[in-house]
Amino acid sequence: MATDLQAWFMDDVHENPQLPHHCNPPHFVSSDYLSELGVLQWKLNPEKYQDDQELEKIRNVRGYNYMDLLDLCPEKVENYEQKLKNFYTEHIHADEEIRYCLEGSGYFDIRDKDDRWIRIWIKAGDLIILPAGIYHRFTLDTSNYIKLMRLFVGEPVWTAFNRPQEEHPARKSYKINFGQKIGMPLEAH
């Protein structure tokens, strides 16, 4: 199924990260450009996530054997404002970051090769994979609610390495592979 994931270059305004932050005029980013940066994406049916054959295929091919669900909203998360601030701090991970949006919406921001911020708006049905070593951050949009499925290979690791991390092995590997197809041979939509 084709994805309707929206992505755009961000403006340089640093107030309220939960706003869209479009440039003026808006400058949208194609799925192909995201793919060049190593970002993979699918559009799935979130209503059938428990027995979705396409999701199962993605998990099997990529080795995602651990899964959990996270409701992120002020009513369900202790120290919500602080958690959101932590998620919004620019960082990398040593492993891929895999998130499947089941309800609500939010923003993943990634850095491109010219160090510009690209905002990716994920909504219900969007599955996104950020490669290990890519600088990124996350925040909710103004809806203040998202339900995410988090997938991992093996035991879950949530360690974030805040920028700068140019000497981190995952960052070095990302830079070597930059612009090339990153990941295993499974076509994203």
UniProtKB/TrEMBL annotation:
Subcellular locations according to the entry: Cell membrane; Cytoplasm; Nucleus
Cofactor binding remark: Binds either 1 Fe or Ni cation per monomer. Iron-binding promotes an acireductone dioxygenase reaction producing 2-keto-4-methylthiobutyrate, while nickel-binding promotes an acireductone dioxygenase reaction producing 3-(methylsulfanyl)propanoate.
Binding site for Ni(2+): 91, 93, 97, 136
Phosphoprotein keyword on record: no
Reactions catalysed according to its record: 1,2-dihydroxy-5-(methylsulfanyl)pent-1-en-3-one + O2 = 3-(methylsulfanyl)propanoate + CO + formate + 2 H(+); 1,2-dihydroxy-5-(methylsulfanyl)pent-1-en-3-one + O2 = 4-methylsulfanyl-2-oxobutanoate + formate + 2 H(+)
Main location as per UniProt: membrane
Keywords for the protein's UniProt record, in alphabetical order: Amino-acid biosynthesis, Cytoplasm, Dioxygenase, Iron, Metal-binding, Methionine biosynthesis, Nickel, Nucleus, Oxidoreductase
Binding site for Fe(2+): 91, 93, 97, 136
EC nos: 1.13.11.54, 1.13.11.53
Any single biological process term in GO: L-methionine salvage from methylthioadenosine
One GO cellular component term: nucleus
Matches recorded under SUPFAM superfamilies: RmlC-like cupins
Transmembrane segments: none
MF terms in GO: acireductone dioxygenase (Ni2+-requiring) activity; acireductone dioxygenase [iron(II)-requiring] activity; iron ion binding; nickel cation binding
Family annotation (InterPro entries): ARD (IPR004313), ARD_euk (IPR027496), RmlC-like_jellyroll (IPR014710), RmlC_Cupin_sf (IPR011051)
Family (UniProt): Belongs to the acireductone dioxygenase (ARD) family.
Protein name per UniProt: Acireductone dioxygenase
Native source species: Artemisia annua
